[in-house]
Every structure is written in structure tokens, then in C-alpha cells.
Design a protein that fits this description.
binds iron/sulfur cluster; disordered N terminus; single chain; 3 domains; about 45% helix; TIM Barrel; about 10% strand; seven-stranded mixed beta sheet; alpha/beta; Transcription Regulator spoIIAA; globular
Length: about 350
């Protein structure tokens, strides 16, 4: 109900407004108002609803700031996620985004502000956006230049996106994000995996987001099947394995089928199927991270605890925050400890 009322309120003035959960780019913010400064766009991205909404409306930076601050005062939006269609000149659209951020900061808003960098934005505008925003991002949309060209002919992947993404990373190291539309360009999960490995390796974004393609009426892809949400979910799991668990892309590829697609199954569990039990007292951190139910925090706690004394039972692992229901079949406590236990 809350979500609906906020959307309704924002859409009185801005029909393209939406409210989203923090994980969709909020970076720890509560309720995030997502809004376009300009609901019109002259670009041709085949998957995009804005493209289909010819004759959409535009707002002014002051107008967006007024609406957001009112909702913020009323406790109905904690942060703002601002993007824009590109009705004409990209510099004008980008300047409008930056100006909105500047107005909000001048008017005393100190909270979460996520500004979208548009493809082809100037370096100066990116620097200015980073100066006022909590987070900035540019969407790569597809895992490669050839895939993007299949669905967005106007955007030049290397120049409009990759070059700008390097500037974004420089302007806001570690606090920028990006997003892929999954399934619009017919790409495989293996292609996405290669792409995100490069992303985390070279540009170190805080997060990569995945948006399952949904056909929009009036677009060239309106008859294409929607990407199942489970694929988006599995990609988030793969992303976590690459980003937080440091799994190698080669290892994750073992989960995929011959065409490079993930099954609808937890990739970490699939990889653990043939795993011999891991000795929790001697195994290196990387091996402990392979165990289902053990994440990076739990694995580090195990390593810290075993430096003081051997872990001898599931209770010790529970103290480290480990979900024994998942981990039990994959761990052992070492021959020495087992022998000591059996002598009791
Ligand atoms: S540039 Fe952005 S708003 Fe414009 S059509 Fe492409 S995805 Fe949609």
C-alpha cells in the first residue's frame, strides 16, 4: 500500500515516476523515488518503454526537486534515483540531471542521491554529477558491443558507454554501479559472466545490477518472450560468487550448459555437489568459501577462531554464524579433532 501511494503521489506530476527497493540501486537508502527528468527519448533502444512513449512529458530540475523534497518531508521517500531520456542533445539532458542534484543539495538535502550518467555524457558533467551525488552509474545494458548493436543501434558501446564508464569509475571510485538488461539481445549467461569479470577486475563497480527483459508494447521487441525472473536471480548469485567470494569465471562456467546458460539452481550448491568434505581447521579460505552456507564473513570468522583453537563441533561453526543445515554435509573437523572427539 505504501509503495502504491508513493508512486501515485509522484505520478500525479510525473507519470514515469516509480518507487523502488534499495537493492535496485539504493546503496543502503530506504524508499527510493525513481524518476526521469525527461520522459521523451530520441534514441532507439528496442527494449525500452521510454522509446515507445513518444510524446512523453519533461520536468524541470526545480520541479523534480520540489516534488522529491515534499515527499521526503512527508516521510514517503528517503532518496532519489534520477535519470532522463535524451530528447535531443545529450549534454542538455545531462546538465539537467546535474542541476537537479545541485538544487537538492543547495536546498539542504543531504540524503541518498543516485544520478544516472547518460551514454555520451561529457567528462565535465560526469565530474559534476560525482560532486553532488551519493552514487553515479551508467548502464552498459549488454555484455558486448555486438550484443548492444542488436538492440540499441544509436549507442556506440565503446565510445558512448565504456569510455564514459571509465570516467565514472575515476570520478567516483568504488561507488559507481552499472546495469545489464538480461535477455534482450539474446546473450548467454557465459557472455554476461565474462563481462562482469572484466567489470569487477578493471573498473571495480560497487555493484552490477541485472534487469530481466520484459517486452513493452509498441517496441520492436514486444513479441519477444520475457526473461524468466529466475534467470535474473541466478545471475545475482553468480555475481556474488565473482564479486564477494572471488570464484574464478572458469569455475562458474562448470555450472553452465554447453550453450553457456545457467540452470535454475543455486550455482554454489551445484559446484559443491562433488566437493569432498572440507577440513574446517586446515583448509584455505578459498576452500571454505566453496561450502554452501558459508559466506565471506563466516569464512573469515572461522579463520580467526581457528587461529586461537581448533573448531571441534557444529556448535563452533554456529558461533561463526554458519548455517549448519546447508554446510553440514560439506565440512569435517580434521582427523586430529575427530580422534580426540571419539576418545571421549
Ligand atoms: S537512451 Fe535510455 S531512455 Fe532512451 S531509448 Fe535508450 S534506454 Fe530508453
Amino acid at each position: 500500500m505504501e509503495r502504491q501511494s508513493v508512486i501515485a503521489s509522484a505520478t500525479e506530476e510525473y507519470p514515469w515516476a516509480d518507487l523502488d527497493i534499495p537493492d535496485a540501486g539504493g546503496g543502503g537508502c530506504g524508499r527510493l523515488l525513481k524518476v526521469l527528468l525527461d520522459g521523451r527519448c530520441s534514441y532507439d533502444c528496442a527494449y525500452c518503454g521510454v522509446r515507445a512513449r513518444r510524446g512523453g512529458c519533461s520536468a524541470t530540475p526545480a520541479g523534480i526537486a520540489d516534488t522529491f523534497l515534499r515527499m521526503h518531508r512527508e516521510g514517503r521517500a528517503d532518496g532519489l534515483f534520477l535519470s532522463s531520456g535524451i530528447a535531443g542533445d545529450v549534454d542538455l539532458a545531462m546538465e539537467g540531471i546535474v542541476e537537479t542534484g545541485e538544487v537538492l543539495r543547495r536546498r539542504g538535502f543531504r540524503g541518498y542521491l543516485h544520478l544516472k550518467v547518460l551514454p555520451g555524457a561529457s567528462r565535465a558533467d560526469i565530474t559534476d554529477a560525482a560532486r553532488v551525488a551519493s552514487r553515479i552509474s551508467i548502464n552498459i545494458e549488454a555484455p558486448s558491443a555486438s550484443r548492444l548493436s542488436e538492440v540499441a543501434g544509436v549507442k556506440d558501446y565503446r565510445c558512448d558507454i565504456e569510455k564514459r564508464q571509465a570516467w565514472v569509475a575515476e570520478a567516483m571510485p568504488g561507488r559507481h554501479t552499472t546495469q545489464l538488461v538480461v535477455g534482450a539481445a539474446g546473450e548467454s549467461d557465459a557472455e554476461i559472466l565474462s563481462c562482469i569479470s572484466r567489470q569487477y577486475g578493471r573498473l571495480a563497480p560497487a555493484r552490477v545490477y541485472y534487469s530481466a527483459f520484459t517486452p513493452v508494447a509498441g517496441t520492436p521487441l514486444e513479441c519477444r518472450e520475457a526473461t524468466p525472473l529466475w534467470r535474473q536471480r541466478r545471475l545475482y548469485q553468480v555475481d556474488a560468487l565473482v564479486h564477494f567470494y572471488q570464484f574464478s569465471p572458469d569455475l562458474i562456467r562448470d555450472v553452465m550448459d554447453d550453450d553457456g546458460f545457467l540452470p535454475d539452481a543455486d550455482p554454489k550448491r551445484v559446484l559443491a555437489r562433488d566437493l569432498p568434505p572440507v577440513d574446517i581447521n586446515t583448509a584455505p579460505l578459498a576452500a571454505i568459501l566453496r561450502v554452501p552456507g558459508i559466506g565471506p564473513v563466516g569464512a573469515r570468522r572461522i579463520c580467526a577462531m581457528r587461529r586461537k583453537a581448533s573448531l571441534v563441533s557444529p556448535a563452533d561453526l554456529r558461533k561463526c554464524g554458519i548455517r549448519m543445515k546447508d554446510a553440514a554435509p560439506f565440512v569435517r573437523f580434521g582427523r586430529e579433532v575427530q580422534a580426540r572427539l571419539s576418545s571421549f
